[in-house]
Amino acid sequence: MTSKNLLLLPGDGIGPEVTAQARCVAEHLMPDLNIDTGLVGGASIDAHGEPLTVDTMVLAKQSDAVLLGAVGGPKWNDVERHLRPEMGLLQLRKGMDVFANLRPAFCFPALLEASSLKRDVVEGLDIMIVRELTSGVYFGEPRGIERGLGDKSFGFETSRYTAGEIKRVARVAMDIARGRGGQLCSTEKANVMESGLFWRETVTELHAACGDGVELRHMYADACAMELVRQPKQFDVILAANLFGDILSDAAAMLTGSIGMLPSASLGVDGAPGLYEPVHGSAPDIAGQGVANPCAAILSLEMAFRWSLNQPGLADRLFAAVSKALEAGARTKDVGGALSTAEMGDAIIAAL
Ligand code: IPM
Ligand code: MG
Predict the structure, then answer these.
(1) What is the pLDDT of residues 280-304, one digit of tens each?
(2) Ligand 1 in contact with 89 (CB < 6 A)?
């Protein structure tokens, strides 16, 4: 068996701290994994004057999986817009064509008290949000700002989805639903957006054609946000366009207590490398202190084992180890504990 390649892109803020722990776990569990590192976001701006270089993009496409920490921070606030750290992330997603972003929201029993919601509302919660990641309002053209027109100056963008773009992500969501509770809730704003109406029609057609074993319902994205907080356990898989998925996944993340716990996987066509990232950002306020929670980064590695590195057994072992470490009381500050980032990583490795 030829060994697999992981490209580590630590990025900015707490990114390097949390991915260092994920790297320790990867070296421990899969010693024959080739791990390469590269720069993205502000770190790449500082070194090369741009948030993602062609060389890094090439490395990403040649790897089996990319594990990214986080990008951005106040240091780059005044950088020209098209050179901002976030643009590096968007270019990477687009360049790798990872159109299906899987954002699970589950509650570890040990962390039930960390949620701001009542215990019985979140106990046993297990949702998978499938967010379209490479189209919609994030990338639609035309877009821009027309200045110099006084009160008539304006900013605008385009929310555009082709049938193909909707179908390919909806297919992923249906496949995932089939492997879980069989329930799919597709969200949009069909009441006010043409692209939302087209989304609803296209998902309905696809479901009629190949939705066997999946129960489909539609919900407006704003209602879904409300239902996520009111009665989150009604959801199994939620499908959303790029912007609504961004918002709904932040809300879902907080149900579980801390955004510092949740991983994500972004997948392209079969066999193409996946991009794995913690859902949290670069957290400049706590960067450099060694207190960030490495669980989201480590669980992103777990998703990479499962979806790109063909190691479901290692993924199961790693997930169990994170649960076990939490059960034993291992906690970083964000979830009410006092362990450092490295101590939390060590506790997980010890539980393997
Ligand atoms: C996310 C983030 C990104 C997004 C930002 C950093 C560009 O919020 O991954 O959820 O909006 O997609
Ligand atoms: Mg977000």
Answers:
(1) 999 999 999 999 999 999 999 999 9
(2) yes
Instruction: Tell me whether residue 138 is one of the annotated catalytic residues.
Output: yes
Cα 328 to Cα 21: distance, rounded to the nearest angstrom:
19
Cα separation of 75 and 82, whole Å?
16
Find the 138 Cα to ligand 1 centroid distance in Å: 10
* Residue type at position 255: L
Length of the chain: 352
Q: What pTM, to 2 d.p., does this model score?
A: 0.96
Tell me the CA–centroid distance for residue 135 and ligand 1, in Å: 13
Q: Comparing C-alpha atoms, which of 109, 155, 168, 124 is closest to residue 329?
A: 109
Whole-number pLDDT of residue 206: 98
Sheet with 65-70: list strands edge to edge: 34-37, 5-11, 65-70, 274-278, 263-267, 100-106, 126-132, 237-240, 183-188, 215-220
What gap in Å lies between CA 211 and CA 182, rounded to an integer? 10
pLDDT, mean of residues 97-115: 93
Name all domains of the chain by residue range, CATH numbers in brackets: 1-106+262-352 (3.40.718.10), 126-255 (3.40.718.10)
Query: Closest ligand to 250 CA?
Result: 2
Nearest CA to ligand 1 atom 5: 86
- In one-letter notation, the amino acid at residue 249 is S
Give tens-digit pLDDT for 264-285. 999 999 999 999 999 999 999 9
Q: What is the distance between the alpha carbons of residues 11 and 282, in angstroms, rounded to a whole number?
A: 8
Ligand 1 neighbourhood includes 246 CB (under 6 angstroms): yes
- Best residue for ligand 1 mutational test, from 86, 248, 254 (most atoms within 8 Å of Cβ): 86
At residue 131, φ and ψ (nearest 5 deg) are -105, 130
